[in-house]
Amino acid sequence: MQTNPKEDKPLTKPAHRMAMVLALMLVLMVVGFLVTLQIRSVSQNKITQNAADHNRTETMQQDLNDALQKVDDLQTQLARARADLEDLRKACGDSDDTAKVLEEQLETAERLAGLTELSGPGIVVTIQDKTQVGEDAEENPEKYMVHEEDLLRIVNELFASSAEALSINDERMVATSEIRCAGTTVSINNKRYGPPFVIQAIGDPAVLEYALTMRGGIVDVLSPYIDITVEKKDNIVIPAYHGDTELALAD
């Protein structure tokens, strides 16, 4: 007689309770891990968001400051424009006054542009080739000749010392003037000149003279190679510029 195999015995109550506890612990561990992960994610997002908000706030503050500065600049320009308009309205109240204002402005523009003859106190600088040359003159004669850079240095120093008008050999210096080498001569306002070069400058004679003759100044530097004399004058006359004043491209 065959007997049936033994059926699996059901879990006892203690074993069943232990299985439930283990399952519950596993669930709690998974839930705890997910909660921790979520907290970390939220915290990181808050940090990132805070940093982004801070940067955005700084950027917006800078943009605001820039905008306020532009508004302030525009208000200043507007105030100036209103003042100019008021002056123009007052001047236009009388046709004679209007003509006088325009004439004064035109004269000022012409003086600044070098288109009128000017006179006043100043200095006269005479530059020429060295008369008493060194022993190396035969080997290097150009060393003792006046070059365009010598004239440029003197002219720049005089303008830097508040010269109001300046000429070289009666060629008025204006914005478009050039001083450049042209073989054995120097081109000034597209005209060639050789030594001696006579520079006239209107301004404070004492200031202009000191600018050139101070210790270690241009006269000290150039005197070993060329002859330079500087004279103060109570009145000199500088002619107007007579070159081309037409502009081909500039508006």
UniProtKB/TrEMBL annotation:
Pfam families assigned: DUF881 (PF05949)
Taxonomic lineage of the native organism: Bacteria, Bacillati, Bacillota, Clostridia, Eubacteriales
Keyword Membrane listed: yes
Family: Belongs to the UPF0749 family.
Protein name stated in the entry: DUF881 domain-containing protein
Entry-linked PANTHER family: UPF0749 PROTEIN RV1825 (PTHR37313), UPF0749 PROTEIN YLXX (PTHR37313:SF2)
Presence of keyword Transmembrane: yes
Superkingdom in the source lineage: Bacteria
Coiled-coil region list: 57-91
Transmembrane segments: 21-39
Entry keywords, A to Z: Coiled coil, Membrane, Transmembrane, Transmembrane helix
